[in-house]
């Protein structure tokens, strides 16, 4: 199994948002009720989109991360009319209040028992020009310093020396905040506190934190319409029932358990079954003898499991007509021993009842977009995220999930580009300005620019940059998101508005987020219960237009335990 740190699996997280590739689509035809679903299954993402570090000829992880920072900076809405540090220095006046946008790279724990840790400043890098990569490069090095695999590359630097853009934030004045984690893009409002010997700003007393706008689903704008206007007598209601189950599964009973899951889905008249990994985990050192005795590889084991599911569903279809209306999507996770999440399987047979998805995966079922992420980002974010909330401990899990959705790329899962590859050797690899290679390149550039087609290319490039930097108010967010985690199970509609220190909390309902709690452990006897999620949607057209939380009585979510080990 390849080292996870060498794979940019996090770049696929953008599939939960945006329209890079159409997701697999399963629809019940209105004129052919009770028959198999119409299936449109295309590759979830091209191989070029799953590029490794500086490989495959596509956009590198460094460029992708810079693009992500530019997008998040544009989403920070700072109040107008406040003094800026750069403008006040130019005029020579002492700023009374300043506003800055940047990335928080280090945080303290506001609930720590140690006073020094509790009052330690945050490390913040200001971004004044998001298009300047030289200004964004120190952010990568600062965030990468906490990673054990590349910390040696940045340990040699002296943290006491001046670093352009780095500022210490003292947030004792901020009464309450939430959703802060290393790597978060945030706007600050405060007053200068300390400067170095050269007059450069080094510390700021923060009075308010401004977080990026929460994503607003496209279907949320239509939620103000009444339910009566959404149905007509000639439009029949199409019901959908989605079932979801997540691994890890016991290695010796994977086939039996998954076949039981399929039987249960057919019995419950489900139209879509999502099976999340890990399906086959790697062996421990104590099990090496078992590995040597087996004649099959890990890939063969997964192929056998998938083949048994297809055969079992085919036999059910001969005796039970309801089985013909069931579609199965298997989404492996990072813990699977094969790299299916990184190298997605191309879908050629679009009429098969079982397809393989990438991790993350987007599915459209009767117009309802479903997002699946087989990674415990809830636990990751809860470990990294800090907040200062008074009397609001009961909603901490919901705020964690809303922070994950607000990060757009599930930042704890996002691997920061490696500075050893991207920054450390840039000086050694650079070419001198008077080099003949540079002269040849400049001549070639002149020749190309004289070509008449170059004007069209420049126009196309300009349009691409505009579309890349433009921020839409409404975003393409799934109606239903499965976030399996080891945390307590939950199912709630995330709020679409941003919560910060100087804005009121709005209750606009966003996507429905469900966590089944992976393999519940009970009692001291270590009895395992696999949790199964069932989401019943009586009217798919209404839910696709206005969201699953528009009328909560119409959508039923149940999480039940079964298949005791």
UniProtKB/TrEMBL annotation:
GO terms for biological process: DNA replication initiation. One of its GO terms (molecular function) is DNA binding. InterPro entries: DNA_pol_a/d/e_bsu, DNA_pol_alpha_bsu. One of its GO terms (cellular component) is alpha DNA polymerase:primase complex. The keyword Protein biosynthesis does not apply. The keyword Electron transport does not apply. Transmembrane segments: none annotated. It is found in: Nucleus. PANTHER family: DNA POLYMERASE 2 ALPHA 70 KDA SUBUNIT, DNA POLYMERASE ALPHA SUBUNIT B. Residues 242-491 form the DNA polymerase alpha/delta/epsilon subunit B domain. Belongs to the DNA polymerase alpha subunit B family. This is DNA polymerase alpha subunit B. Keywords: DNA replication, Nucleus. It comes from Bodo saltans.
């Amino acid at each position: 199994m390849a080292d996870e740190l060498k794979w940019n699996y996090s770049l696929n997280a953008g599939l939960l948002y945006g329209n890079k590739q159409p997701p697999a689509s399963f629809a019940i035809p209105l004129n052919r009720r009770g028959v198999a679903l119409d299936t449109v299954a295309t590759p979830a993402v091209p191989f070029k989109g799953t590029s490794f570090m500086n490989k495959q000829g596509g956009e590198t992880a460094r460029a992708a991360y810079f693009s992500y920072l530019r997008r998040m900076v544009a989403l920070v809405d700072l109040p107008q009319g406040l003094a800026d540090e750069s403008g006040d220095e130019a005029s020579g006046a002492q700023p009374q209040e300043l506003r800055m946008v940047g990335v928080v790279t280090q945080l303290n724990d506001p609930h720590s028992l140690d006073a020094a840790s509790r009052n330690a400043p945050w490390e913040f890098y200001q971004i004044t020009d998001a298009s300047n990569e030289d200004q964004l490069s120190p952010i990568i090095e600062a965030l990468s310093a906490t990673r054990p695999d590349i910390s040696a590359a940045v340990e040699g630097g002296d943290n006491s020396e001046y670093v352009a853009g780095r500022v210490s934030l003292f947030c004792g004045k901020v009464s309450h905040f939430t959703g802060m984690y290393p790597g978060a893009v945030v706007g600050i409002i405060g007053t200068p506190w300390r400067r170095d010997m050269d007059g450069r700003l080094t510390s700021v007393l923060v009075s308010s934190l401004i977080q990026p706008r929460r994503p607003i689903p496209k279907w949320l704008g239509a939620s103000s319409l009444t339910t009566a206007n959404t149905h007509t007598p000639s439009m029949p209601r199409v019901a959908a029932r989605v079932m979801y189950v997540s691994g890890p599964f016991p290695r010796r009973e994977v086939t039996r358990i998954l076949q039981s899951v399929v039987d249960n889905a057919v019995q419950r008249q489900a139209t879509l079954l999502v099976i999340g990994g890990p399906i086959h985990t790697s062996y421990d050192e104590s099990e090496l003898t078992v590995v040597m005795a087996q004649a099959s590889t890990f890939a063969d084991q997964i192929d056998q499991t998938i083949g048994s599911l297809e055969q079992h569903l085919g036999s059910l279809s001969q005796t039970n007509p309801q089985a013909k209306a069931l579609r199965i999507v298997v989404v492996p996770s990072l813990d699977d021993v094969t790299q299916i999440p990184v190298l997605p399987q191309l879908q050629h047979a679009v009429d098969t009842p079982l397809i393989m998805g990438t991790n993350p995966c987007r599915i459209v079922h009767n117009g309802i977009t479903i997002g699946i992420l087989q990674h415990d980002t809830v636990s990751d974010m809860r470990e990294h995220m800090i907040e200062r909330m008074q009397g609001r401990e009961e909603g901490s899990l919901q705020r964690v999930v809303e922070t994950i959705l607000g990060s757009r790329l599930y930042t704890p899962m996002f691997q920061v580009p490696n500075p050893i590859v991207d920054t450390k050797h840039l000086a050694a690899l650079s070419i001198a300005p008077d080099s003949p290679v540079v002269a040849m390149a400049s001549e070639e550039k002149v020749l190309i620019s004289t070509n008449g087609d170059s004007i069209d290319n420049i126009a196309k490039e300009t349009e691409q940059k505009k579309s890349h930097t433009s921020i839409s108010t409404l975003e393409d967010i799934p109606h239903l998101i499965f976030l399996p985690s080891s945390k307590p199970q939950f199912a709630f509609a995330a709020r679409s508005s941003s919560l910060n220190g100087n804005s009121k909390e709005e209750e606009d309902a966003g996507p429905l987020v469900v966590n089944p709690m992976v393999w519940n452990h009970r009692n001291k006897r270590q009895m395992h219960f696999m949790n199964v999620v069932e989401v019943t949607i009586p009217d798919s057209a209404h839910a696709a237009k206005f969201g699953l939380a528009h009328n909560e009585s119409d959508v039923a979510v149940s999480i039940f335990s079964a298949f005791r080990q």
